[in-house]
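Memo subject: From amino acid sequence to discrete backbone structure tokens
Action wanted: Derive the backbone structure tokens from the amino acid sequence.
How to read it: Take the token row as a discrete description of the fold.
Attached in line: The record itself begins immediately under this heading.
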Amino acid sequence: MTKLTNPFLLKSELKYAVAVSGGSDSLAMLMMLVEFGYQSQITVLHFNHKLRPESEEEALEVEKICEGLGVPCIVGHWDDQALEGNLQQQARQARYSFFKRCCDEKNLAEVLVAHTQDDVVETMLMRLGRGSGLTGLSAMAERSTALDVAVFRPLLGYSREELQQYLADKPVDFISDPSNDNDKFFRIRVRKLKGHLHNAGLDYQHMASSAHALKRADEALEFFTEGLANQLIENKEAGQVALSTDLTFYPQEVQLRLLAMALLQCTGQGMAPRTSKRQQALQFMVQGVPKFTLGGAIFLQGSGAYIIEKQP
């Protein structure tokens, strides 16, 4: 019998949503919440993407499990699928829109999501293959906001194997999604490398520790940069920001972050341009290029600063 320590520590005065797909990770999270006495504080949210013939039966199975546990369950359905472009991204947006609506209607403080240690390492390896920097390689945050939804990831310290062992003596069966074996998905190809990496001496627990160390370093850099931003970034008239050229006295990683912060203040866009484009912009500033564009903004050389204006 596998015993797990309580990773939740939920506030007694709040209600929470629990995202349950029916897979091993989310089902283990639900069973742990009940075992640790939180069933009166939680509402299960299950989103039926309607992408597989089995999805209706799986939704009914999740409802049945919740009924047996005495936990309320809300099932959402993806009725306006646009099956062009990035299907996984569209599905995630639809799922989180459902989460947001339920949290607002039921006054639920956070959505508990069952990301695990395996997800931390898989994400780091995927981003390593794409050439990501410090922020991209860092472990996902335990608490964050995703598409306007407050998200809590309490299981980042547990492996998928630990959770499946925990479920082994529970009176429930988790759902095996066939897409989890589909090699057309990058994450699945990376997931299947785990055994090979372990045999080569690359342990997931140690790699997850590295991802969390990178997260701490990233947070420290962000804290330092935010302090500098108060000195080097000045809001001007509506739609204008002044970025001091003194930023070039600092390490390049700090320069890149300051540039991203200035752009965000100017344009309101949440995603910074890729690192290579920001590096080019910094080079333009050092060279004294009088005018250039980046990330939906125009940079105009001024006295000791570049004035950044949102493009029409």
Summary: Residues 112 and 136 are 22 Å apart (CA to CA). The first strand starts at residue 16 and ends at 19.
